[in-house]
Amino acid sequence: MRNLLRRLMMVKPTQVRTVCDLPAKPTPTVSPKRCYEDAVYALNNLQSNEATLKKSMQYPTSAFLKSRLMPEHLQAVGLKVSDLDDLKVIHVAGTKGKGSTCAFAESILRHHGFKTGLYTSPHLVAVRERIRINGKPLSEAAFAKYFWDVYHNLKAKEGLDIPAYFQFLTVMAFKVFIMEKVDVLVLEVGVGGEYDCTNVIRHPTVVGITSLGLDHTRLLGSSLQEIAWQKSGIFKKGCPAFSLPQPEGAFQVLQERAQERECSLSLAPPLFDI
């Protein structure tokens, strides 16, 4: 015992290891693949359920008014609506062909040396396809990074609900395109135009209307004239607008809306006429 006490007295303080001095256990890391899959799972939980969709059909105006919260959602993730003014935006609405029109426009601009952003819907295989930089979908790692940044910022904002699937992705897409400093953004409208959440853009470079038809009639109206009114909601003062040939009544509505919004409206001939 005396020998043990003598040895302990000879030990220097620096030789004594406490629990705090012990090496910490390695923190388990989450693989990028798992992080992405968790992001997709969380995003899918933002899908509107059947009851919500039915309510939207019964009260379309109140459903559309949710898009008016876009400024608050943008602010929650560190953006202002005025930040979007710096983007060179080609905004496209329509019933048929708007996705392919956006893809053609993006490809032409990219092959002329511009750094492009493309936002379209729906996706074919992976949700990452909706947000593209230079023609390529976001990588799983980039998607997860931006998703969780936006998600946690929105979650932390008191008094503001996290937006539903499409509106969430739209907020995220704007964040991506601004952070990635694209030269031009080709932006496809989700549904309609007037009340679509993409219509938070105030100063597009140019807007386009593709072929109009009867679609989403409970939300947009039961006639081509009503649908034309909704689609032309993306017209902005001083911004040139182009439209494919439309049925007479629908095109007249587009002309009236262009006059109201003080923007020029030109007719784009079909490709086989060029």
Please tell me about this protein's structure.
By secondary structure, the chain is α/β, with parallel strands linked by helices. It has one domain (61-273): Mur-like, catalytic domain (UDP-N-acetylmuramoyl-L-alanine:D-glutamate ligase), CATH 3.40.1190.10. Helices cover 43% and strands 11% of the residues. The chain is built from twelve helices and eight strands. Helix 12 links the parallel strand 7 and strand 8 (265-267). Helix 11 runs parallel beside helix 12 (248-261). The longest helix is centred in the middle third of the chain and has 17 residues, at 140-156. The N and C termini lie far apart (103 Å).
How many H/I helical runs? 12
Which bin fits the share of residues in helices? 40-55%
CATH top level label: Alpha Beta
Low-pLDDT regions: 11-29
Order of SSEs, N→C? Answer: HHHHHHEHEEEHHEEHHEHE
Q: Major β-sheet, in short? A: 8 strands, mixed
Q: Radius of gyration, Cα only, in angstroms?
A: 26 Å
- Amino-to-carboxy terminus distance: 103 Å
Q: How many domain units?
A: 1
- The total count of strands amounts to 8
**Morphology:** globular
Average pLDDT rating: 85
GO molecular function: ATP binding; tetrahydrofolylpolyglutamate synthase activity
Protein name: Putative tetrahydrofolylpolyglutamate synthase
Organism: Rhipicephalus microplus
InterPro entries: Folylpolyglutamate_synth (IPR001645), Folylpolyglutamate_synth_CS (IPR018109), Mur-like_cat_sf (IPR036565)
